[in-house]
Amino acid sequence: MVTVIVYDVRELCQAIHISEHCLIEIVEHGIVEPEGDSIAEWVFDTQALALVRKAVRLQRDLELDWTATALAINLLEQIDQLHSDNEYLKQRLKRLELAQIKLI
User: Is 30 left (phi over 0), alpha (psi -120 to 50) or beta?
Assistant: First the structure.
């Protein structure tokens, strides 16, 4: 059984030390998508918490606006996916090479 931790707006803002206005900008730029129709109903899971934390750090450290931060987050996610795909393909290639060696 997997336990999912959910944060409301106040809890997430307190956990990351950001204002509600900052969180709204992050959501408006599509960096995270909360569950819920209105700000009062928004909830975020642990993955969203980590993503918001990463976005705030990028925005602050690189002095980016939120549009550039959203782009950076998207590019970092693509790089992570490419690394995962590359690792998977390397493992498959190794298995194929081992199978060919056994056949020889």
Answer: left
